[in-house]
Amino acid sequence: MPATDTDADRTPVGDADVCVIGAGPAGGLVADRLAEAGHEVVILEAGPRFDSADRLARQERGIRPAYDRPAIWDSDPERDAYESSGERFYPLNHARARGVGGSTLHWQGMVMRLHEADFNSASIRGVGTDWPIDYEDLRPYYAAAERELGVAGADDNPFAPPREEPHPMPAFRPSYSDSLFAEACDGLEIAMHSVPNARNSEAYDGRNACVGYGTCQPVCPSGAKYDATVHVKRAERKGATVIDRAPVQRLEHGPDTIEAAVYATPDGEAHRQEADAFVIACGGVETPRLLLLSESSHYPDGLANSSGLVGTFFMDHLFAGTGGVLDEPTRQNHVGFLTSESHQFYDEADAEYAPFKLEFFNYAGPSPVGMALTGDDWGDDLLARLRSEYGSHVGMGGLVEQLPRENSYVGLDASTTDDHGNPVPDVHWNVGERALRTIERVNEIQERILDELGAEITWQVGRENTGPAYHHMGTTRMGDDPTESVVGPDLRTHDLENCWIASSSVFPTGGAMNPTLTIAALALKAADHILERL
Amino acid sequence: MKLTRRDAVAALAALGVGGTLSGCVAPPGSEPVDVDRLRETLVAAADVIYPSEVSGTATFVETFLEGRLEDPTHVAGLDEAVTELDDNAMFWHDERFAALSVTDREQVLRNIDVDTADEDPTGTTSERVRYYVVNDLLLALYASPAGGELVGIENPQGHPGGLASYQRGPSA
Ligand SMILES: Cc1cc2nc3c(=O)[nH]c(=O)nc-3n(C[C@H](O)[C@H](O)[C@H](O)COP(=O)(O)OP(=O)(O)OC[C@H]3O[C@@H](n4cnc5c(N)ncnc54)[C@H](O)[C@@H]3O)c2cc1C
Ligand code: SF4
């Protein structure tokens, strides 16, 4: 699967107004907006540009046991080397994809707005910190982000923050297993509602409606699931230049401005991309890493790091889940996305308990093809096993907020270097008691629902075996006070006049909603601030 | 259940290969491979691998293979795996794999531990036979609607079966 053209011109663009680093949704959206306004934009992306004709072959990798998750989008162990030194292991290369499109190439694609209280955690819940902006500041950008990504959703969620207009597309209809859960939840007075999906429930924006491949994570072959190639290509049509396989090594700077992004190319050359403005959109791990790698005599602890907080406060959402089997068919694994959730308990959060949301799975238990490829049997024995093991599973998930903590951070590990000789990122992930206590609560509610449903519980992910949801937040936090934050409410670094950050790395707290709609909204806000300056 | 050519085309659509191809293939830059031998071997293996309640496997497997032949890397790996399978069949039974009885074919596969091996396109003989022969046949069947229906899922993973089936109850 050759990913990219080795002979492409990867020399810098002359007279660039803006250099965007990273071609995920954050970088793609900013680039699109700025190119739209007529600016000369160049996007530098570390990974390759993948050929969309290979998506079905990648899907086959997604189904076949010979390939692990990182291999599906060609993760390279040397390029993507990392350390995980925290109290919990962090599987970084399962948690990102590198290339044009970024991690949305293999994301799930559920997109919710944060709740109003998430912006004021310290004031309302008595823990964490307040954002320097409120829900109202972001509200128009949320609406714009929903139009940009193409979100299918409905107005049936009584717990969601206020919105001004319907979602761009109607929500996906509930699944058969949702109807089983609905009865149980009715009995327990737990409200279910639709899930906003960045996935076409009807044709939208030149992309087709979802056709039900059921492999959304890690590959949507049809393009019905939004991924950031949409905005990168759009930016290119508006005149932006994309240079792929061009990892930025460091940012050359003076005391107040970035002068150039130094990037490597596959031929072993190094180039300097100069620009008036720089946007760092490398995700929540590589963004602080690039700043740390760009240290200088003026910024000995890392660029834009006068606060000393670059890399600190690394957060993810924690997964809590419970599942089991019923004695009736549950019709799982037809599609690879969720159609129902419950946000009922979200705003009960306080200092003791974190906000959380509940998810009702449509893909609980193994899929028949997956079981067939991994068994020790074939012929009639295999078919008998598939029939007995597929078909009656149910499962629930949940996401839980973790608080920002100083001892949870992304640093550099100088003892290991990547394919260009740079120290690798060290993801030092620690979680904290409030999140773990909340996971227990989530598990209890999940058990109650499954009991009411009559399920025999067969698995649980709880406080002991919880893992990350692959949402990297907090490592260049936003705030008004330059001694306590890295960027201001305009997403510009406090230290440098011409450097903005578009990423969940700016989130001061995480809430418990998947982050990418908020990333997109902040990217659009950043673009507006950059336009004011250019 | 009788498998058809159409079922195989549906299976191929899920794997990004399609179309028809006839005659002998010479993938660019490689030795020409004996397509008949590949075809006979896969059809013979399907008799072991597929459940007894499916029929029409020869047409299904042949059509599926036609699609696979469009990928030279896959063809080279398959050819090598089939050669090793035949070598083993010759060693134990003095005949090519496809010429053996169904019981002997199964025995050959078990002799080289294909039943317990994890698939790996670049691994040991058993891992490669598992990848190119056994699991490719299983993938063709169980990622297709025909195979899915045997198990009770008419829109299996890998098949673009639309948005109705996930909403449908079991009795619908
Ligand atoms: C399995 C999975 C499921 C997910 N599901 C959801 C979901 O349902 N909902 C949701 O909201 N979020 C989900 N996410 C998270 C979502 O994918 C991310 O929040 C989102 O992609 C972040 O966007 P980004 O543009 O900030 O970073 P990314 O998408 O990670 O893109 C960053 C890009 O920057 C490039 N880059 C990094 N360093 C450099 C450098 N030095 N030079 C040049 N380029 C560089 C990278 O190669 C990459 O392409 C999921 C993630 C995963 C892994
Ligand atoms: S179910 Fe829909 S969104 Fe998911 S992979 Fe299939 S077409 Fe794409």
From TrEMBL, chain A:
Give this protein's Gene Ontology molecular function annotations.
flavin adenine dinucleotide binding; oxidoreductase activity, acting on CH-OH group of donors
Q: Which PROSITE patterns match?
A: 4FE4S_FER_2 (PS51379), MIP (PS00221)
Q: Provide an example Pfam family for this protein.
A: GMC_oxred_N
Q: In this protein, which residues make up the domain named 4Fe-4S ferredoxin-type?
A: 200-230
Q: Which InterPro entries match?
A: 4Fe4S_Fe-S-bd, FAD/NAD-bd_sf, GMC_OxRdtase_N, GMC_OxRtase_C, MIP_CS, P2Ox-like
Q: Does the keyword Metal-binding apply?
A: no
Keywords assigned by UniProt, alphabetized: FAD, Flavoprotein, Oxidoreductase
> Is Transport there in the keyword field?
no
Name any cofactors this protein relies on: FAD
Q: Which domain of life is it from?
A: Archaea
Report the sequence similarity comment from the record.
Belongs to the GMC oxidoreductase family.
Could you tell me what this protein is called?
A: Lycopene beta and epsilon cyclase
What is the source species?
Natrinema limicola JCM 13563
Automatic annotation (TrEMBL), chain B:
Which Pfam family, just one, is annotated for this protein?
Gluconate_2-dh3
Q: Which InterPro entries match?
A: Gluconate_2DH_su3, TAT_signal
What protein does this entry describe?
A: Gluconate 2-dehydrogenase subunit 3 family protein
**Protein source organism:** Natrinema limicola JCM 13563
